[in-house]
From TrEMBL:
UniProt cross-references to InterPro entries, sorted A to Z: M14A-like_propep (IPR036990), M14A_act_pep (IPR003146)
Keywords: Metal-binding, Zinc
Pfam families in the record: Propep_M14 (PF02244)
Lineage of the organism: Eukaryota, Metazoa, Chordata, Craniata, Vertebrata
Residues of the Carboxypeptidase activation peptide domain: 43-117
Entry keyword annotation includes Magnesium: no
Entry protein name: Carboxypeptidase A5
SUPFAM superfamilies (alphabetical): Protease propeptides/inhibitors (SSF54897)
Keyword Calcium (UniProt): no
Sample GO molecular function, one term: metal ion binding
């Protein structure tokens, strides 16, 4: 819930709305920059404690940036969603596994999803 000027609350964007916005943003970026996200994945990571949360924060600070956080590390037990370029997948997954960070694949190939969305929008 988000605060309003009158002191009330209003619901924030739902996860579905957020995902739609992210997909739309990627479509726009891909269209404008002819970017290709073939093989890129979106991983959802769950940190059990502050130490694991800190390890995720370390990924956020890498230069050059290796991952794109869609939902960054905030507190333990809240999911962290990140786009991982195909070229970094092996290393990032190894990092997560070596530190006992549980993850799941939310989007297996972003480009496939973008292509499907483009086709649906063209109809």
């Amino acid at each position: 819930m988000q605060g309003t000027p009158g002191g009330g609350t209003r619901p924030g964007p739902s996860p579905v709305d957020r995902r739609t916005l992210l997909v739309f943003s990627f479509i726009l970026a891909a269209a404008l920059g002819q970017m290709n996200f073939t093989g890129d994945q979106v991983l959802r990571v769950l940190a059990k404690d502050e130490k694991q949360l800190s390890l995720l924060g370390d990924l956020e600070g890498l230069k050059p940036q290796k991952v794109d956080f869609w939902r960054g590390p905030a507190r333990p037990s809240l999911p962290v969603d990140m786009r991982v370029p195909f070229s970094e997948l092996k290393d990032i997954k190894a990092y997560l596994e070596s530190h006992g960070l549980a993850y799941s694949i939310m989007i297996k190939d972003i480009q496939v999803l973008l292509d499907e969305e483009r086709q649906a929008m063209a109809k």
